[in-house]
Specification:
With 261 residues, the chain is of the alpha/beta class. The protein has three domains: 95 residues, Translation factors (Elongation Factor Tu (Ef-tu), domain 3), CATH 2.40.30; 109 residues, Nucleotide-binding domain of ferredoxin-NADP reductase (FNR) module (Rossmann fold, 3-Layer(aba) Sandwich), CATH 3.40.50.80; 41 residues. It contains six helices and 15 strands. It is globular and about 50 Å long. The chain starts with a strand and ends in a 6-residue tail after the last strand. Bound molecules: flavin-adenine dinucleotide. The site of flavin-adenine dinucleotide has 24 residues, from strand 4, strand 6, helix 1 and helix 2.
Amino acid sequence: MNLTNAEILSNQPISERYCHMEIAITGWSVADVKPGQFFHIRTIDAYSPLLRRPFSIYRINEEDNTLEFLYLVKGVGTKVMAKRMPKEHLDIFGPLGNTFTFREGSSGILLIARGVGIATLSALAFDAGKKGIPCYAILSARTKDDILIEKELTAAGIKTFPVTDEDGSSDPLLVRKLAEEIIKMQQIDSVYTCGSRRLAILTKDIGEQHQLFAEIALEENMGCAMGACYACVCDIQDEDEIRSIRVCQEGPVLPLKKVIL
Ligand SMILES: Cc1cc2nc3c(=O)[nH]c(=O)nc-3n(C[C@H](O)[C@H](O)[C@H](O)COP(=O)(O)OP(=O)(O)OC[C@H]3O[C@@H](n4cnc5c(N)ncnc54)[C@H](O)[C@@H]3O)c2cc1C
């Protein structure tokens, strides 16, 4: 885990609501960063907003030791982050949290993401591409404009299935049908989700029905991200017991069957 002043290489909007940022790391290798992990970022070098904000790694570039983030411009922190300029320094803390796991000898994985949830799942998708594991991604969003990084995923050999609210294709019944077709046709043995409670419920159900290995990346609001403040507590079902966990300590990736949705 490192506290780093990274150099911002680029930071620009990729659609009306989303931005992409690339930063250069010096002093340690990004090879140590794993899909699913996140960084706690000081969005601006000022007292307000005081709290850092957590962001998953969208892409890990070992060749030039850079990291990329995709983020939704939402509240006070991301609004100031969107104004940060190339050559400025970004105070980042991490990598934090656990990582996604691949089932041993996986024959194919399916990602079910809503909105910027694909930012969290994409590092896993690129890793699957490198390992030669077939990867399929259902990308759900409000509008066509909100479907993120489809081109980048396709270029990495990932088959994408965009669905939107505007044309009605993101309806859970239709997404379920689509997911079941992919699972049956493509020998999917693992499924991963992020970005929507409704899709997580659907994914959990499909996972249980088809006996798939299933994981979720949770996005609880965080304060310290070090386990001290208990801002990110959620309940999980552990065997017969319901237990509270801190997402920053035991997550953000959890077995989907354990998460109470
Ligand atoms: C592990 C993880 C990974 C994530 N990855 C991504 C990602 O890759 N891309 C992405 O777009 N989003 C991601 N998110 C969500 C992202 O962190 C939030 O969207 C972001 O924090 C919003 O910040 P904001 O300042 O714009 O919004 P705000 O709504 O202003 O603030 C967000 C939260 O910060 C806290 N906060 C703010 N101000 C205060 C205050 N004064 N006192 C106490 N608490 C306060 C609150 O919990 C608040 O809800 C991730 C979240 C987690 C947990």
